[in-house]
Amino acid sequence: MKNNLIDKNDCYYDDFSKIVEMIETRRNNVYKKVNEELIELYWDVGFFVSKKIQNNIWGSKVVDSLAEFIKNKYPTLKGFSRPGIYRMKQFYETYKDDEIVSPLVRQLSWTNNLLILSGNKSKEEREFYIKMAIKNNYSKIELDRQLSSAYYERYMLSNGKALPSTTKTIDEDDYPNTKLLDLYSLEFLDLPNEYSEVDLRKAIIKNLKNFIL
């Protein structure tokens, strides 16, 4: 059977490579848009629950009932357990009055937002890691490594001088699909536990279509 793949010496290689680059760019844009919608969803849920509790309308038992209600309504939907709902509330309450940071958290995955939220106590430290994670496009593994190494404290002790980034784990870049899952949290697509790439594409397109409409 004839192999139709071209090599770098083929006259069409550059043109074909540009098409592939267009495809990859659009695919990444779609994933990012889905992730932004997920963060907006968690923000809105956090706002709603926060106001209900603040106004003494809801108590902890109501949140338990909400988690059970969502579980029955969407059995495969993850993230809306009792602890998950309270994390959304904490997420909203932490950033709601921060005009600088609140737009930035939309650019991070939910996983990375939780890492920063749980690993940092001061407003300045959270802002530092959020900006650094966005600038360097950190995966969960990379961000967790910087947090665990107390990069912020070392940075401050160095009087704001850039420090060498901690090294990647061996062969980490050999697994791009793993990094993709770290970057984008897609729970609200309500996919089954096992799904194909075709299922993923259809779910993303369906949700984008509903959003646009």
Fraction of residues in β-strands:
under 5%
Radius of gyration: 21 Å
Order of helices and strands: HHHHHHHHH
Q: What is the domain total for the residues? A: 2
- Rounded average pLDDT: 79
Distance from first to last alpha carbon? 46 Å
Give a short summary of the structure:
The chain is mostly helical and 213 residues long. It has helices at residues 13-54, 60-73, 82-95, 110-119, 123-136, 140-148, 151-157, 176-183, 197-212.
Task: Characterize the structure shown.
The radius of gyration is 21 Å and the shape is flat. The model is unreliable at 166-184 (pLDDT under 50). Helix 1 (13-54) packs across helix 3, helix 4 (110-119) packs antiparallel against helix 5 and helix 4 packs parallel to helix 6. It is mainly α and 213 residues long. It is 63% helix and 0% strand. The chain has two domains: 21-108, no CATH class; 110-183, no CATH class.
Write the SSE topology.
Elements: H1 13-54, H2 60-73, H3 82-95, H4 110-119, H5 123-136, H6 140-148, H7 151-157, H8 176-183, H9 197-212
Helix pairs in contact: 1-3, 4-5, 4-6
What attributes characterize this protein structure?
single chain; 213 residues; 2 domains; 9 helices; 63% helix
